[in-house]
Structures are given as structure tokens and as C-alpha cells.
């Protein structure tokens, strides 16, 4: 059974169809990538999956749950986390503090327990620290642990945003253009992190990405969209060789090759 099922999803803004009857399924443990020219509707699809936008029509199922009946704040509990195209971190706080924010959804102790620092609070605190340390080790962030985020290079900040999403221990991770703003070397490193996230942590990854080298390196399957509609689905190679996909990119500054 698919972990994520998107069925006939559409979204209109002022009478314009940004997403038009899009369907796809992502299996547990897959790395699934959505590509398409600027304005194709990719981020709108992510915004509907993460319930930032309510779809005009269609259904989204995550692990057997119909997301139309859920609120955005339920998603982390269900096991869905995402990153954004633009970094959204607390830039005046340290890396450690930002990563601990990613554990917020797992805080089960009540205020009075926290104030009295009861054994339950202590256990929860240890659990949060362990989860954060695991992410720090995985992404090699030891060196930056106590650094203020705003002072760090962009590439490291992108990694911290990824780390914060991982701290929630999701089952599925949505990455919106993870390589944007990264140089070639950082993008190569990113491909290893994404594979580690799937292979070592068992997290399913759905990403929007423009860098076809990264897409080819990590994706099990690729969905190509243009003008809100699905053009093709297949392996990265099949998609790159698809004439309709090549045509959609013609006349744009982007290149699918
Ligand atoms: N909140 C909104 N209100 C009105 N129109 C919107 C809104 N969000 C997106 N759109 C429009 O929907 C279309 C799809 O936008 P979307 O951001 O999903 O594309 P995208 O494929 O993610 O593009 P990019 O690669 O440039 O990020 C665009 O024409 C965009 O202007």
C-alpha cells in the first residue's frame, strides 16, 4: 500500500488552475521527486499536502488517513514533516535550540510537570536530547552545535533546516528545492544526506527539485508537471528522454538535461 496517495488534486486561485487533476502515489521507503518549469504548480501541491492550502477538489491519503479531515498541526503527529524553499529558522538562536524546536511536537508533559521537573519531564528531556544528537551526528553538525544560526553560511543553514525536520522523526519528509542556493560540492553532499535519510532512518522522501543531476542521483521515480498537469512519471532517465517533458522546458531558462 502507498504511504502517500494524491488523488485528482486541483487548486484554483481566482479562477486560474494552478494544479489540475494531479494524482500520484509514493510507496514507503521511496525517494520521489516532482520536477517542472517555474510556475508549474509544484509548491502548490506541497502546500496542499501540508494543509497550508485546502484543495479545490481531490483527496490526499497519508498512511490510510484522509488528510481533508485533519488540521495542519496534526501532521507532525501523523509523521509528516517538510522544509521550505526559503529557510525558516530562528536565526538569533543556536543550532541546538533550533533543532530542539523540531522536537516540540513530541512534548507530552504538562506545564506543571515541566515547572517541577518531574521524572516524566526528565525522561522526555533525555529523549529529546537523544533524538537531536542522532540528527547532529547524521548530518555532521557537531562543529556548529552552539553557533548562532544567523552567523552560519547558507549551505549550513539549509542543512539545519533539514535537521530540524528530521528531529520530529517523520515517516515522510517533504523537501522543497533542497539544493537551491547550494554550490556543486554542497549539492553532492546533499545527495548523500538524502540517501542516508532514506537508507539509515527509513524515512520516505518526496522532493521538489530543479537540479537534474541531483534528481538523477537519488530519485527512484520522478513526476514531471507543467501548467498544473502531470506530464509523465517514470525513472529520471525516462523523464529526461520524454519528448513532452523536453517540450515543456523549451522556451524556459531551465534545462531538463
Ligand atoms: N497564493 C497564491 N495566490 C495566487 N496564485 C498563486 C498562489 N500560489 C501560487 N500561485 C500561482 O500558482 C501557479 C503555480 O505556482 P507554484 O508556486 O506552485 O509553482 P512552482 O512549480 O512551485 O514554481 P517554482 O518552481 O517557481 O517555485 C503560479 O502561477 C503561481 O503564481
UniProtKB/TrEMBL annotation:
One Pfam family hit: ABC_tran
Single GO term (MF): ATP binding
InterPro entries, sorted: AAA+_ATPase, ABC_AA/LPS_Transport, ABC_transporter-like_ATP-bd, BCA_ABC_TP_C, P-loop_NTPase
Keyword Signal found: no
Cellular compartments per GO CC: plasma membrane
Domain ABC transporter: 4-252
Record key words, sorted: ATP-binding, Nucleotide-binding, Transport
UniProt key word Nucleotide-binding: yes
Protein name: Branched-chain amino acid transport system ATP-binding protein
Organism, as annotated: Marinobacter segnicrescens
Amino acid at each position: 500500500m502507498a504511504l502517500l496517495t494524491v488523488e485528482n488534486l486541483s487548486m484554483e486561485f481566482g479562477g486560474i488552475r494552478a494544479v489540475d487533476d494531479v494524482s500520484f502515489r509514493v510507496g514507503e521507503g521511496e525517494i520521489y521527486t516532482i520536477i517542472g518549469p517555474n510556475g508549474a504548480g509544484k509548491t502548490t501541491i506541497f502546500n496542499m499536502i501540508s494543509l497550508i492550502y485546502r484543495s479545490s477538489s481531490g483527496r490526499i491519503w497519508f498512511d490510510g488517513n484522509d488528510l481533508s479531515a485533519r488540521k495542519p498541526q496534526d501532521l507532525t503527529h501523523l509523521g509528516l514533516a517538510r522544509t521550505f524553499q526559503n529557510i525558516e529558522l530562528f536565526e538569533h538562536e543556536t543550532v541546538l535550540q533550533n533543532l530542539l524546536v523540531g522536537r516540540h511536537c513530541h512534548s507530552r508533559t504538562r506545564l506543571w510537570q515541566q515547572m517541577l521537573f518531574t521524572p516524566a519531564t526528565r525522561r522526555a528531556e533525555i529523549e529529546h536530547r537523544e533524538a537531536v544528537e542522532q540528527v547532529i551526528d547524521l548530518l555532521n553538525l557537531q562543529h556548529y552545535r552552539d553557533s548562532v544560526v544567523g552567523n552560519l553560511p547558507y549551505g549550513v543553514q539549509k542543512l539545519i533546516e533539514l535537521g530540524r525536520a528530521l528531529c520530529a522523526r517523520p515517516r515522510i519528509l517533504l523537501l522543497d528545492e533542497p539544493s537551491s542556493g547550494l554550490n556543486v560540492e554542497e549539492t553532492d553532499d546533499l545527495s548523500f544526506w538524502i540517501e542516508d535519510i532514506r537508507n539509515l532512518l527509513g524515512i520516505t522522501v518526496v522532493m521538489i527539485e530543479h537540479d537534474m543531476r541531483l534528481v538523477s542521483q537519488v530519485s527512484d521515480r520522478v513526476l514531471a508537471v507543467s501548467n498544473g498537469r502531470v506530464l509523465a512519471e517514470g525513472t529520471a532517465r525516462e523523464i529526461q528522454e520524454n519528448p513532452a517533458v523536453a517540450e515543456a522546458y523549451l522556451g524556459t531558462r531551465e534545462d531538463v538535461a
